């Protein structure tokens, strides 16, 4: 994903104690007096931006996943072209640089371009491999099953954040990890789901393993990006986060193009487009809007990274879990059997547990900040 991609494609910052903070410059006293405050003490503009980012992330990730599944149901076969569209829309992100330019360049430390290039290349190649696993999983799984297995990325995120970013594992977070792992495992062993897409049991198992591996890799990418911002880049601006997304997506897109030609799949694209059940124009529009959707999801991810944290953006991405299966049942007539419903409820339970821990951490940090201000 991202989404994206995300998105992007799948796309990360930090949370309270263990993650890299990308702080918003404190407003002056005059600005603070003029800004409308919510009961929680945050400016109204902050809540509005977070709401828009959440909408972009959920809408972009949901539409991109459904369009990716539509591509395969209408006769698409190329995994490389599917991986390509997950990052190929990155030029859209250049427009956001004009709306969110860096306001405090003097506060950033300079990182050698050679070191940055190595970071972008390594992360970009990992993203390309992650995209291939995601597209392989989506090819062999129903969209509803695929989205539920993706819930495991939150559990993997906790593990990598603990190892690489010293994330504190509380009982609520551990509970979330167990629940989300159970949710994914239920889908993996489900016999009822295997006949939905008309693929063999072996391909269904392959799709399950690929999707689970992609979720694990995506969480590793987030943790590596957090570590990179903390120890190497050290730029606390939205433009720095955007540059990370843009240039890693550029590398991932280039890798997908190389894979497309090296595998020989490019030779079959013309025939694939001609044989697309809903027509050539629909074929092109499906790929185009899938690419746009992944970048919309990535914009939501980046916005949440800047306004809140990378961990929170990953949590919000799981909100699409009950959304994608619903639309998959409506659009593709996926069967919502008992196992999927139980898995969905467990995933939602795990998500709420994780979100409640985030709320408690924020409340604790606010109380500590208030205490420090009183002492000062």
From TrEMBL:
<keyword id="KW-1133">Transmembrane helix</keyword>
<feature type="transmembrane region" description="Helical">
    <location>
        <begin position="112"/>
        <end position="129"/>
    </location>
</feature>
<dbReference type="InterPro" id="IPR030182">
    <property type="entry name" value="PUP_plant"/>
</dbReference>
<dbReference type="Pfam" id="PF16913">
    <property type="entry name" value="PUNUT"/>
</dbReference>
<feature type="transmembrane region" description="Helical">
    <location>
        <begin position="244"/>
        <end position="262"/>
    </location>
</feature>
<protein>
    <recommendedName>
        <fullName>Probable purine permease</fullName>
    </recommendedName>
</protein>
<feature type="transmembrane region" description="Helical">
    <location>
        <begin position="201"/>
        <end position="224"/>
    </location>
</feature>
<dbReference type="InterPro" id="IPR037185">
    <property type="entry name" value="EmrE-like"/>
</dbReference>
<feature type="transmembrane region" description="Helical">
    <location>
        <begin position="80"/>
        <end position="100"/>
    </location>
</feature>
<dbReference type="GO" id="GO:0005345">
    <property type="term" value="F:purine nucleobase transmembrane transporter activity"/>
</dbReference>
<dbReference type="GO" id="GO:0016020">
    <property type="term" value="C:membrane"/>
</dbReference>
<feature type="transmembrane region" description="Helical">
    <location>
        <begin position="311"/>
        <end position="332"/>
    </location>
</feature>
<feature type="transmembrane region" description="Helical">
    <location>
        <begin position="339"/>
        <end position="356"/>
    </location>
</feature>
<feature type="transmembrane region" description="Helical">
    <location>
        <begin position="141"/>
        <end position="163"/>
    </location>
</feature>
<keyword id="KW-0812">Transmembrane</keyword>
<dbReference type="GO" id="GO:0015211">
    <property type="term" value="F:purine nucleoside transmembrane transporter activity"/>
</dbReference>
<comment type="similarity">
    <text>Belongs to the purine permeases (TC 2.A.7.14) family.</text>
</comment>
<dbReference type="GO" id="GO:0022857">
    <property type="term" value="F:transmembrane transporter activity"/>
</dbReference>
<feature type="transmembrane region" description="Helical">
    <location>
        <begin position="46"/>
        <end position="68"/>
    </location>
</feature>
<feature type="transmembrane region" description="Helical">
    <location>
        <begin position="169"/>
        <end position="189"/>
    </location>
</feature>
<keyword id="KW-0813">Transport</keyword>
<keyword id="KW-0472">Membrane</keyword>
<feature type="transmembrane region" description="Helical">
    <location>
        <begin position="283"/>
        <end position="305"/>
    </location>
</feature>
């Amino acid at each position: 994903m991202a989404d994206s991609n995300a998105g992007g494609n799948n796309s990360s910052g930090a949370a309270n104690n263990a993650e890299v903070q990308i702080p918003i410059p404190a407003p002056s006293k005059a600005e603070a007096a003029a800004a409308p405050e919510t009961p929680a003490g945050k400016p109204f503009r902050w809540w509005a931006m977070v709401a828009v980012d959440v909408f972009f992330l959920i809408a972009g990730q949901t539409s991109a996943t459904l369009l990716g599944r539509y591509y395969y149901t209408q006769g698409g076969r190329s995994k490389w072209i599917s991986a390509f569209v997950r990052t190929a829309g990155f030029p859209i992100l250049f427009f956001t640089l004009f709306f969110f330019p860096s306001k405090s360049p003097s506060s950033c430390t300079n990182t050698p371009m050679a070191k940055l290039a190595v970071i972008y290349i390594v992360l970009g190649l990992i993203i390309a491999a992650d995209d291939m696993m995601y597209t392989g999983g989506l090819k062999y799984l129903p969209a509803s099953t695929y989205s539920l297995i993706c819930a495991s990325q939150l559990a993997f995120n906790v593990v990598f954040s603990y190892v690489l970013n010293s994330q504190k594992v509380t009982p609520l977070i551990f509970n979330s990890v167990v629940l989300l792992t159970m949710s994914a495992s239920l889908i993996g062993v489900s016999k009822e789901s295997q006949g939905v897409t008309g693929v063999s049991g072996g391909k269904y198992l392959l799709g399950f393993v690929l999707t689970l591996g992609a979720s694990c890799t995506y969480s590793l990418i987030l943790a590596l990006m957090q570590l990179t911002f903390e120890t190497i880049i050290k730029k606390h601006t939205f433009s720095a986060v955007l540059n990370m997304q843009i240039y890693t997506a550029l590398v991932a897109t280039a890798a997908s193009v190389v894979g497309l030609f090296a595998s020989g799949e490019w030779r079959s694209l013309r025939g694939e487009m001609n044989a697309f059940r809903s027509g050539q124009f629909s074929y092109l529009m499906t790929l185009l809007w899938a690419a746009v959707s992944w970048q919309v999801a990535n914009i939501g991810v980046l916005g949440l990274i800047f306004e809140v944290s990378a961990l929170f953006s990953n949590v919000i991405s799981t909100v699409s879990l009950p959304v994608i299966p619903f639309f998959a049942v409506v659009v593709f007539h996926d069967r919502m059997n008992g196992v999927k419903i139980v898995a969905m409820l467990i995933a939602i339970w795990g998500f709420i547990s994780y979100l409640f821990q985030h709320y408690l951490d924020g409340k604790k940090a606010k109380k500590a900040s208030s205490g420090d201000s009183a002492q000062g």
